[in-house]
Amino acid sequence: MKLTVKALLTSFGVLASALSAGVGTAPAHAQAKTITLCWAAWDPANALVELSKDFTAKTGIGMKFEFVPWTNYADRFLNELNSHGSLCDLIIGDSQWIGGAAENGQYVKLNDFFKKEGISMDDYMPATVVGYSEWPKNTPNYWALPAMGDAVGWTYRKDWFARPEIQKDFKAKYGRDLAAPKTLDELRDISKFFQGREIDGKKVYGASIYTERGSEGITMGVSNYLYDYGFQYQDPKKPYAMDGFVNSPGAVKGLEAYKELYKCCTPPGASNSYMSEGLDAFKSGQVALQMNFFAFFPGLYKDPNVGGDKIGFFSNPAGPATQATQLGGQGISVVSYSKNQGEALQYIKWFSGGDVQKKWWALGGYACAKSVLNDPSFPSSAPFAGEFLKSMGMVVDFWAEPSYAQLLQAEQKRVHDYVVADKGTAQEALDGLVKDWKAIFKEEGKKF
Amino acid sequence: MNDLSASSQITYRAVPVRPAVARRIRGLSDQALAWLFITPTIVLLLAINIFPLVWTIYLSFTNYRANRANAPTIWLGTDWYQSILTDPDIWAAMQVTAHFVIWTVLIETVLGFGLALLIDKKFRGHGMWTTIILLPMMLSPAVVGNFWTFLYQPQIGLFNYVVAFFTGRDASSFQMLGDVTLSPWAIVIVDAWMWTPYVMLICLAGLRSIPDYIYEAAEVDRASNWRQFWSITLPMALPFIMLAVLFRGIENFKMFDMVNLLTGGGPGSTTEVASITLKRAAFESWRTGYSSAFAIILFVTVFGLANIYVKALNRVKSR
């Protein structure tokens, strides 16, 4: 017993010495303050951690990061904002949150700050300013600095496309060369062609597309078809008038086309796929085509198994009505409940700098500054850069209204019910969606 | 000193005239002391149970949204209750919940009781088997949800492989989680796998509480094993079985985590149990008033059904 007590005391002494030694060796230039930045847990977040080291070195302000996986990202941070939490000093919030965050006083309005610091929104790509910063849309009221440009794009197995026997088979079947698709019909043909084909002794499938039910997956996927087939959220001349726009004959065809692609050409078990499932399917060599956000493309290009010469990139192909794509990406905002707003604003000022934006792109983040994107060398700076630039010129975003979450849930349910669960027709799904959206806007007091 | 005198001395020492406990704390009566002890519990109960319940009932009659706390709150009367009770989507969610509750409770009860009967027999290694059987219920539902997602994966999942092995079907020709017909059963299978051991434990307690002399008497009367089961085992274990049914029924009525992880309510709304609908309304749409009304409806349903059931349970116990 005596031995045990003695050992315990000795351990305690050693521990205490170690701790005091640790304290003694702490850096002399201790950071004045630390701020927390909240974002999703994904590749670009790692790049931002690397980039932010420069901010700490320059200002002495420490950076803490709170990254949450995409599937819980909205739940976690919207709860934080709605409960007036001060966990996040800075938040890189999804583009659709901006209406709610602005109207509910969760983000700090940045107009005065931008004016004082000489930050001009004219220096950023227009689509990113409208998508990530403005509320109400198309008015000069800024709640965020465009931080991470993004859109839905596609990757394909360039090495498979280049094989002579595959090219020969494809030409014999479709009468044209096998190449990255220019239209959604071509994309369907290519997917069908690869579905069930044996390559290197392994059965492969056509395409991985978004079908996830729980958060926003299937909506982010189907939109790329709906837009191309003529879907519009509302009458451009009469806000919130949705009849004949959301459920137009073109939109119905677009929804049917997306279902056709899901049924014919996706791997088995792809009924609840989103970003990470798409990455898994592509990286494991299961699929020839993958729908995913551009944010993942730098990582995919570096992948030892499917990256480099084996991967190609293309923007969302054209449909019968137009060529458009779903906007992704986010702006960076200062949370109004933060106790470190001064330091958070310092970060935004630093982040807006031209050199920082260039380094951001170099590290794998998608800068939104014109100084980066309009640089003549930009399209050739990465194999996906040109397609990204093209995509950012044709992006459309989901509703950014304060009630966006309800609007999103309604579309998730209606579309998943039709595409995956085979309930009803495309016309019924979109008519039902109009009904749901009208009810939501009515509850919001909107007149239409 | 003889034994008697010794015991008298002990008795005398053991019953001293002790002052009331309250007198030790100056100025406090016994009743005041009792209140002092139970007040923290009552305050906690009021703060974390009663007040939220009363507040939820109040909110259920308003248009309140937690994400717009500064917006004016309008009294809506019973609008939300009417809207919920006439909403076909809500009734669909209730049907999904009923399917899930009925089948899981039925399967878990039958299998759990069967396993309890087996484990109750002393055999070599029965301790090890009991531990193995209990393992699933010791896991977190989050872990279970995630690894069953892999087991159900059509291309690499063990479940599909086993089914393919025994039926000769192609393993990737069916998907448990993505198929409208199969997905409700997929979640039933996982819940049964995880919680059958729990039912087994309760049933085992029931079986172990049956005195051996009753079986001995039955054997003297030359009752067959079957007769002993129907006349002794089942009736005497019935209160325990009913208790297990009550616990699992209430738990599964509230089921959220596992279903959310396995299917997220999909495909479409095929596995959208009531608690997923409620969570979406409360914490994604932030329709606090609406979701409060829905929560009250669910609470009354569970409370009402549980009360009826407990009365039946008491009747069985009193027999």
Automatic annotation (TrEMBL), chain A:
GO CC, alphabetical: periplasmic space
Top-rank taxon: Bacteria
Keyword hit for Signal: yes
Pfam families in the record: SBP_bac_1
Signal sequence bounds: 1-30
InterPro entries xref list: Bact_solute-bd_prot1, SBP
Localization (cell): Periplasm
UniProtKB keywords: Periplasm, Signal, Transport
Family per similarity comment: Belongs to the bacterial solute-binding protein 1 family.
Protein name per Swiss-Prot or TrEMBL: Extracellular solute-binding protein
Organism ancestry: Bacteria, Pseudomonadati, Pseudomonadota, Alphaproteobacteria, Hyphomicrobiales
From TrEMBL, chain B:
InterPro entries xrefs: MalF_N, MetI-like, MetI-like_sf, Sugar_ABC_transporter
Bilayer topology annotation: Multi-pass membrane protein
Compartment(s) of residence: Cell membrane
Matching Pfam families: BPD_transp_1
Keyword Nucleotide-binding: no
Domain ABC transmembrane type-1: 94-309
Regions crossing the membrane: 33-58, 100-119, 131-151, 185-207, 228-250, 290-310
One GO biological process term: transmembrane transport
Tree of life domain: Bacteria
CC per GO annotation: plasma membrane
Keyword Transmembrane: yes
Major subcellular location class: membrane
Keywords tagged on the record: Membrane, Transmembrane, Transmembrane helix, Transport
Family: Belongs to the binding-protein-dependent transport system permease family.
This protein's name: Sugar ABC transporter permease
